[in-house]
Design a protein that fits this description.
Length: 754
């Protein structure tokens, strides 16, 4: 996410505002602690690095949190997004100058440096420039504050801590009457580990844990303050637990702290927030809080015995409380000047989605959990069993029982709302059930919490979880979870599909494992490994981990390594896989236009598109003297080409190997003894040639490349007529049927990629 803040930095404005404010204060009135901060976020890490999605938004979120409850005023904070090395140095100098100007106004100054982005084993990666850890440590140390707190959220960031670092001595302190010196370095990973971000939480794991902890989740003492000890302990455990089963391995945050003093350094104070949520004393379980957009805000393992206070922004939230035997869910507002209490009484019990474990001791328990809610007993006083249930106007028959209704057959004419159907659910207008074991058929409208069976719709079926069977639609099926088969005239929607989706018009799935096949259109968030999207016209997905095949167009945000897009046009925001088509585009790949002149006086025009390991070539070439001649002239010839290439890059140099097939079209006179209704005395023929080309290129500036090439055009297919018109120089005869025409060429290319 980009921001409207000046990328260079906000220091000029910062100094002007701060200077005016401080001049009005009495210099002999020293405050306790004065805090300053520099927040840096950089999604781009230069060539051969994967673009991050959340580094810049993480930096913005960290600034927001520290401004609200971390004691850092806006006037003392600088935000840099996608900065250069010079931008970072200038910002350090500006913060240092501000601290010097205000040195008399406080007993102690503290400087916080936060970075989220790319790094390797030795340096931060700021675009195409590196900022070495040793340089960074020297720059931070030169900032004239008493305490330096450094938080790095990047790969291999543990190496920063190892670079001329100290050792942990005494705990850190907060006592504004004391003199404190030293540093505290926190890194998101060890010196040999990757740092990871997640689409599910919309953040990196480490920064999300830090922000959640700062807002109160890390407050283990219950004093509404989060200390550095508490924050590191919380962030370590949360980051490790979220990444220990990830494909790239677990992530272990590191620390190095050398502070002289006693006590703990407080980083945030929840009591400073205007809007607070309290998890009540008796509440116990895993508490997951999300904002109105569904983004994870906080995730806490709450134990009974003492309340937990969280500083949240004003707004609407939802919470899920996962206990050993039940799951609760509800929503709540957070308003200014009020502490909102969350307890079990505030929320409703919901049906949980149990998943089978693949073997191990938990398999039997998982299967029991899956069937527990769906099974009901005749002895249950809250359940009423009926052979059938129907409604003329809103359950006028069954509602007299005042219980949950379980029926074999449910017919909804106006409305029929029951707990469970073991059989058939049929609707004239509207059925509702929490569970259906059997079939849902709709004229207008069925809805169910869970369906284990078949859904068919003219208009409309809907279920939230677990359609283990078949969905068919004239118009319309919707399922949150589907394991089986979806078929649509118009329209199927499912959040998770582990099976097959087939559409005339239209399938949509947020995530699926299986296959999507469409006459016109497929859409999915993620195409998992071992899966395929196949469409007559277009495929659209957020992430591809296997195969997209379309008659016209494939679109995805991310094409995984060694995975494929096959279509006329292939588009990927990021591509580490193979795009095979006439036109292929990705921001991280190759998309360049080129023109060249060869030793046989031929001019070529090409489009290379794909990635450096495999790109497609589309273009044409023709003799220079024929560029502006009338196409029906006697010696007119034009060749159209399509092929593939691969590129090896070293710094600003590249070496390419390409192969393509050319179809050369040229005019020939008609035989006089052949009758033809055509009024012309000539027609066009085409010959096929195969070309291999070796290219050496150099990129002096961004987007622009010059190159020289040696190529061999081969005549395998009796293309003698075309060759006699095109090649005036060397002809290597390799037998009766093979001729090779070597040539050299020079040219330029212009790239539209980053």
């Amino acid at each position: 996410m980009k921001c409207c803040f000046n990328k260079k930095f906000l220091a000029v404005t910062l100094i002007a505002i701060a200077g005016g404010f401080f001049c009005s204060a009495q210099e002999n009135e020293a405050i306790g602690v004065d805090r300053y901060a520099l927040f840096v976020g950089s999604n781009m890490g230069g060539q051969n690095t994967q673009r991050l999605y959340y580094a810049e938004s993480d930096a913005i979120a960290f600034l927001k949190t520290m401004k609200e409850i971390g004691g850092i005023p806006q006037s003392n904070a600088v935000l840099l997004l996608d900065p250069t090395k010079d931008d970072l140095n200038d910002a350090m100098d500006s913060v240092s100058e501000l601290i010097r100007r205000n040195s008399r106004r406080s007993k102690r100054s503290e400087f916080l440096f936060y970075y989220s982005g790319h790094s390797d084993e030795t340096a931060l990666q700021l675009g195409n420039a590196n900022y070495s850890f040793s340089e960074l440590k020297a720059a931070i140390t030169s900032v004239p504050s008493d305490v330096h707190v450094v938080i790095l959220d990047s790969c291999y960031s543990g190496n920063f801590i190892r670079t001329k670092g100290g050792q942990k001595t005494k705990p850190f302190l907060l006592d504004d009457s004391s003199i404190v010196k030293g540093h505290a370095y926190l890194s998101s990973s060890s010196s040999q580990e990757y740092s990871q971000e997640s689409d599910e939480i919309g953040s990196s794991f480490f920064t999300n844990a830090m922000l959640t902890g700062l807002r109160g989740a890390a407050d283990s003492s219950g004093d509404k303050k989060v200390t550095l000890n508490e924050l590191y302990s919380y962030a370590f455990n949360e980051t490790l637990s979220k990444t220990e089963n990830s494909s790239v391995g677990p992530q272990h945050p590191n620390y190095n702290i050398t502070l002289v003093g006693s006590g703990d350094l407080v980083l945030s104070d929840i009591s400073n927030s205007d809007s607070v949520v309290m998890l009540s004393e008796g509440l116990k379980g895993r508490v997951i809080i999300r904002d109105k957009n569904g983004k994870l805000v906080s995730e806490i393992n709450k134990n009974s015995g003492k309340p937990v206070f969280l500083a949240l922004e004003k707004g609407d939230y939802s919470a899920t409380i996962i206990k050993d035997t039940v799951t609760l869910q509800g929503s709540f507002p957070v308003t200014s000047g009020r502490v909102y209490e969350i307890s079990e009484k505030s929320f409703n019990v919901i049906a949980t989605s149990a998943h089978r474990l693949r073997g191990g001791e938990g398999s039997e328990d998982a299967e029991k959990a899956e069937n527990a809610i769906a099974e009901v007993s005749e002895e249950d006083p809250d359940i009423q069993f009926l052979p059938f249930e129907f409604s003329l106007v809103s359950n006028e028959i069954s509602r007299q029982f005042g219980k949950k209704i379980v029926a074999i057959f449910s017919l909804g004419l106006i409305r029929s709302q029951i707990f469970k159907v073991n059989g058939l659910m049929l609707s004239g207008i509207e059925n509702e059930a929490e569970y259906v074991n059997g079939a849902q058929l709709a004229g207008i409208f069925n809805t169910a919490g869970r369906v284990h069976g078949v859904q068919e719709a003219a208009i409309f079926n809907s279920s939230e979880n677990e359609v283990y069977g078949v969905q068919e639609a004239g118009i319309f099926n919707k399922a949150k979870d589907l394991m089986g088969f979806q078929a649509a005239g118009i329209f199927n929607i499912a959040e998770d599909v582990r099976g097959v989706q087939v559409a005339g018009i239209f399938n949509i799935a947020n995530d699926f494992t299986g296959a999507q096949v469409a006459g016109i259109f497929n859409k999915a968030d993620t195409i998992n490994s071992g899966c395929a999207q196949v469409a007559g016209i277009a495929n659209c997905s957020k992430e591809v981990h296997d195969l997209q095949v379309a008659g016209i167009c494939n679109v995805t945000e991310k094409l995984g390594k060694n995975n494929f897009q096959i279509g006329i046009v292939n588009i990927a925001k990021e591509s580490a896989g193979f795009q095979i088509g006439l036109v292929n585009y990705s921001k991280t790949g190759i998309f360049e236009f080129g023109t060249s002149l060869n030793s046989n006086d031929q001019m070529s025009f090409t489009l290379n598109s794909g990635n450096q390991h495999f790109y497609c070539i589309l273009g044409c070439w023709k003799p220079v003297h024929d560029l502006f001649t009338y196409k029906n002239s006697e010696d007119h010839i034009t060749a159209y080409l399509y092929g593939f290439g691969t590129r090896f890059i070293k710094d600003s140099f590249n070496f390419d190997f390409e192969g393509w097939i050319s179809n050369a079209f040229y005019r020939v006179d008609k035989d006089e003894d052949k009758e033809d209704d055509d009024h012309f005395d000539y027609h066009y023929k085409s010959d096929t040639l195969v070309t291999y080309r070796f290219v050496f290129g150099y990129q002096p500036v961004k987007h622009f490349r010059v190159f020289a090439a040696a190529s061999a055009m081969c005549n395998f297919y009796n293309a003698d007529e075309a060759c006699s018109r095109m090649f005036k120089m060397v002809d290597i005869n390799c037998g009766d049927r093979v001729h090779i025409y070597p040539q050299i060429e020079v040219g330029v290319k212009y790239s539209l990629n980053d």
